[in-house]
Amino acid sequence: MAESATESTSDSSTKPDQSATDAISSPPQSHHVFPEIPIEIVSEEEMAIIDAALAATRSILPCAIRSASPSRIISGGSPKTTIRSITLFTKRKLSAACSADIEDSYLRRFRRNQALGVTDLTGTEWCEKQMENVLCFGRRKVSKAMKAGQARHLQLEEEVVRKVRVRVESNEDKWALKLLNSIAGVNQFLFEGRTRELLLLGFVGGQWIVGIIDELRNAYAQESSDTGPILIDTKTRLRDTLPAEPQRRNGRLQLMLYKLLWDTVVKEGFPTGPFFDYFSLNRHYVLSQDVRDHIANAGIQAQTLEEIVRYYENTFKMLPVANEQLLLKYEFQKDQSIIAEIRFQHDHEWVMSKYREIIEFWRNERDSEYTPEEERWKCRYCQFAKSCPGNPNFESSPPTSPPREASPPLPS
Ligand code: SF4
Question: Where is the composition biased (Pro residues) (predicted)?
């Protein structure tokens, strides 16, 4: 079992349109086939997952830090988002308030000296206007379904990772632990063939990107002839139904972004100079005693952040690119049974075009857009619906709370 460091401080105190290449399968013990798996437009839990992506206000903390540490530290430069009540949102003309007189990019305003999270990117793909409003005004509270999903992910992680608390004294210490956790995760994958919640940081197309891969394992012989690791993402759901295509597309995008990130670090390396500059870190900083002790326990000789960064770079250099096949799992929250496993091929051109589009939004190189008209059903579940002109029911009063079933199942 790998060890994952959790920070504590001295004051103690994260496709193409319905593709023909998708293969959706039910678990071996089930006799369901794809057409028999009910599909719903959206569910409370799925919206929770999307909310979680849209939240995207978390910093680039490893899962261990996000989930387990009561004294968790938000890395320097956390978003300056103001959380206000939904009631307040409804009294504002959100779009105008968010962007009209502010020329600076969302990257500079909300992710200065931070990496963009993969969840930032997938949240933007869901609805740019929604992301814009989340950045400017905050998001609704974490729901019960979101908490349940987070708890399940923590449970899955703890099956393969043992957490230990380590005291940190600086941003350099925090970064050392993040990168050390990644190195430990990769080592676990190399020795055991599997790891979970692997944090990845890389420089993709001139932008620092961070993501936490749910699961990484060797491909089974019958699964793929490609020897690269299979990247897996598990979505938990309140009901044993598949989400609609836009939600599955969002899930495919997430996995392809992970592969893009992984392959970039493996093939193009890790630009150490830009790393220290962008995150304002001192490469020669001597890490705190606790962090150095933890690093030594992991079998690594390092005194400074630069040494850990080199180790991270060298670790990824020896890895293969990720498998072309990706796996999206849907799990029923109630009994943890698998609703479906969706296998699909990476599509480099598609993900790159999505990536460029999204980065343009973050860099303010174009205006943000409402979700496409055919997907405006999303508005019924959006916290900004009452004030958003993109909502088809903007003039009339939308329902105050989402119905449990959004609409009849989509045809498969
Ligand atoms: S109401 Fe609809 S278009 Fe407007 S931000 Fe929400 S999801 Fe996007």
Answer: 399-412
